[in-house]
Each structure stands twice: as structure tokens, then as C-alpha cells.
Amino acid sequence: MAIQTRGAQAVNFVSLPFIFFFFTVFVLFYSLPARYRMPLLLIASYFFYATWSIPFITVILLTTTTDYWMSQIIHKSANLSQRKLALTAGLTINLLLLAFFKYTNFLLDTSHGLAHWLGYSLPLPHVLQILLPLGISFYTFEAISYMVDVYRGKAPSPNWLAYNFYIMYFPHLISGPIVRFVELFPQYEQPLKRPSLERMAKGFELMILGFGFKILLADAVAPLADTVFQDPGHASVIASYIAALAFTVQIYFDFMGYTHIARGASLLFNIEMPVNFNHPYGASTISQFWERWHMSLSRWIRDYLYFPLGGSRGKLIATLCNLMITMLICGAWHGAGWTYILWGGYHGALLAGYHLYKHLKIKYLQGWESWLTHPLYTVMATTLTFCTVVVGWVLFRAPNLQNAGQVLNRLTNWQALGNELVTMLSTRHLSNLGTLLFLLTCCFIGPWAIQWLASLYRPLPYWAKVQVACGLALLCWILTASGNHPFIYFQF
């Protein structure tokens, strides 16, 4: 999983340059009159993106201008054909740009591989030096939702600057959450006021928690996964289990850390962003997992892919096909590689299987309601769902299908697993078991951590909260002195 790092320190939310940039913008925001605050944030957003790449600003200017004018045509025209043509043109331009930057090399590599298998040689380059614009997958989805919403009857942006701010607003520009124009625009339609003290406290709390999630958890367990996935052929079965669980922890707290920082920073600018996670590893079904994981993306693929395909309104086979198509597209959106497409197809098959199970349950399991609501059934269902999700993360993390196959082969080698466990117990080398237990605890401790925060931390006096927050921030700063991992979703 190659993560682009060009300019990473400038846009990395847990770097000192970003902290300096953010607090400079915050001080200016708090000091300026209300009418200048939205323009300040827009200028800051362009500066933020320019620290990574100035030329790629032209891509965003092209797409936002196209989106704005196409939406105006859609809104003002009474001719249905003209409205459809404007929508098609707007969507096509956005998708072609995304396809060029993100999928050209994947298509070239796939074409050469297929041609070689057939015994042909293609007069095409094997790879082009194409740099993926930061955040293009996220702001493309937001642009699509905007134009489709206008086509469906929602009011368009009153001017280009208002729409441009929706796309460029820097806390959510790179990795979301994926918000809709009708959710964000009302918050800056009028001049932005200073945040209340309560909102500021919540914003700083979210940012500190986000730093902690990223640095103390995600980055801390990342080496456990990296070592095995880079060379799975020499890893033991226990090490493979640790790697799979380590990445399960890493991707959750890495992305949740980013989202917490984005939401916290927004609150300090008096803008509220949606919650993106709700303890997904505690889900008892794969459908519930997707309702809790990356919630803004799940809502997007439901409303702009699954429902337009027909959703569950048709026959059972049509619904299963719609689920597969939707998740294959979701997998391809995450990355230009067969591992991502296979991951999407895998989750599509899981969702289709669960939908089929619900259909059969209604038909054949009437009278079993007491068992289906029993706590033991819930525990079994949650365990099964979690295991299937972990298997999916192996596909997502592996750099290629061969490495994914090797790791999965280790995970299903029950005899070797038993032998390694017996050896560990007999020699009393229990550090690996302790690591497994720690990783599992990280996956499921969320609800208890929230209760602890509510019962122990929040009642503390203000000075004590400030000391705890400063201590956590200092610890994060010390641990990042030697560098840290880029956010995983930066590559998308």
C-alpha cells in the first residue's frame, strides 16, 4: 500500500507545520470581523492545498467551475433533456479526471498483463508519471452529490465562491467526512460567528483525541502489520494473526483520528461536521458494520449508487446484483488495484449473503425470534462479523494478491496455529498472546471508553481537564519527534 508522501508534512494533521498553520488561521478567524471569516478560511484552504501542489489547484478550479455552471443550467432550465445533458456533462468531466489521475496506470498495467497472457505486445507505455491530486476521490464524490441533488430539486449554490468553499474547506478536503452542500452551506450562508466556549472546548477535545488515536494507537501498532505484509512468506501463524489485527486497529484509529481532528478543527471555526464512526467492530451484522464504518461514505454509496441502481425494490436476484455492483465500485474508489476491487467484491458478497439470509429468515425461521434475540446469538453474530471484516482488511492492506494469499493461508493453517500455541504455552513466552489480547481490546473498548470519559473525565474541574489535555498533547509531540506515518486515507 504505497502512500504518497510528497508534501506530506505540510498537510499532515499531526505535523508541527500544520499545527502552526492551524493556530495562525484560528487566531485570525477569532480576531477578524464576521464578514471576513469565510473568505479567510477559503484563502487558508488554498494555501493549505498549495503547500502540497500549486499546479493541481487548477484541477480543482476546473471542476468547481464546471460543477457550478452545470448546476445553474440544471436549476434554471425547464427542458428535461437539457437538464439531463448538463448533469451528464458535469458528472462525466469529474469522473474522467478521476479516472485519468487514479486509474490510468492500473489500466495500462492490466492491459499489458492481459496482452502478455494472450501472446501480444502493446505499443503503449507500461506506466506514466502521474501524481494523484490530494483528496480527489473525496471531493469528486462531493461534487457528484451536489449536482445530483440540484437535479433532484435542491437549491444550487447562490454563487461560485460559496460552492468553491464547500469543496475547498481544508479540514475535510483531503479525507472527508463526505458532506453534502445542503448540510454545509447553511452553516456559512451568514457571516460566521465566533464559536461558543462550549463548542471551542469540544473542538479542542476532539483534536486532542484525534492526535491520540493517530499517534498513540494507529502509528504504534503499524510496524506490527508492516513487517508481515511486506514479507508474509517468512512470518509465523501467530505473527500473521497479530499483523491482521494490528492493521484492523491501525486503519480504524488512523481514520477516526483524522476525522476527530477535522471535526474538532471545524468546531473551532463554528462549523459542525458529521460523525463518521460508531463503534463499527461491535456490529453484529455486515450491514450494521457499514452503517457504522465511514458513515458518510456508506450514506453516499447508498443514496447515489445503490438506490439509483434499484436498491432492494426489485426481485431478490436484482437486489443481490445491486449490492455486488455497488461494493465493487466502492472497492475501486478506494484504490486502483486488484486487492481493492477484490475487497469491494468480498464485501459485496457478504452483504448479498446477509440480505439473502434475511430473506430466508423471514420465510423459514418464524417462531425462532427468542433465539435470534438471545445474547448468545448476538455474541456469535458479532464475532462472525468481526472475523469477516478482519479477513477483508487483509485484502485491503496487502500490496498485491500474492501477499494477501500468503497471509490468508497462514490465518487458516489451524494445525500450525495449534502447534505454535502449544509451544508458547509450554515455554511460557506469552508476549504474543498479550499483544493479541491488547489488539482485540482496542477493537472493542470504545463503548466503555465513552462511559469512562463521561463518568470520570468530564466532571473534572476545568484546570484538571486542561492539564490532562496538555499532557496528552505533549506525549504525542514527543512521539512524533522522529516522524510518523501519513494518514492511510491520504492515498485515496
In short:
This protein has helices at 8-11, 16-31, 37-50, 57-76, 80-118, 136-151, 160-168, 170-173, 181-188, 197-230, 237-268, 286-292, 295-309, 316-334, 338-364, 369-372, 375-397, 401-411, 414-427, 431-444, 446-457, 462-479. The chain has 492 residues and is mainly alpha-helical. The protein has 2 domains: 32-194, no CATH class; 199-491, no CATH class.
Computed Rg = 24 Å
Helical residues, percent: over 70%
SSE topology string: HHHHHHHHHHHHHHHHHHHHHH
Largest sheet: none
Low-confidence segments: 1-8
The average pLDDT score comes to 89
User: Which band does the percent of strand residues land in?
Assistant: under 5%
- The DSSP helix count reads 22
Structural domains: how many: 2
Number of strands: 0
Describe the structure.
With 492 residues, this protein is mostly helical. The protein has two domains: 163 residues, no CATH class; 293 residues, no CATH class. Helix content is 73%, strand content 0%. The protein contains 22 helices and no strands. Helix 10 runs antiparallel to helix 11 and helix 11 runs parallel beside helix 20. The longest helix is centred in the N-terminal third of the chain and has 39 residues. The radius of gyration is 24 Å and the shape is globular. The N terminus is likely disordered.
Q: What topology does this entry show?
A:
Blueprint: H1 8-11, H2 16-31, H3 37-50, H4 57-76, H5 80-118, H6 136-151, H7 160-168, H8 170-173, H9 181-188, H10 197-230, H11 237-268, H12 286-292, H13 295-309, H14 316-334, H15 338-364, H16 369-372, H17 375-397, H18 401-411, H19 414-427, H20 431-444, H21 446-457, H22 462-479
Helix pairs in contact: 2-3, 4-5, 4-6, 4-7, 5-6, 10-11, 10-22, 11-17, 11-18, 11-20, 13-14, 14-15, 15-17, 17-18
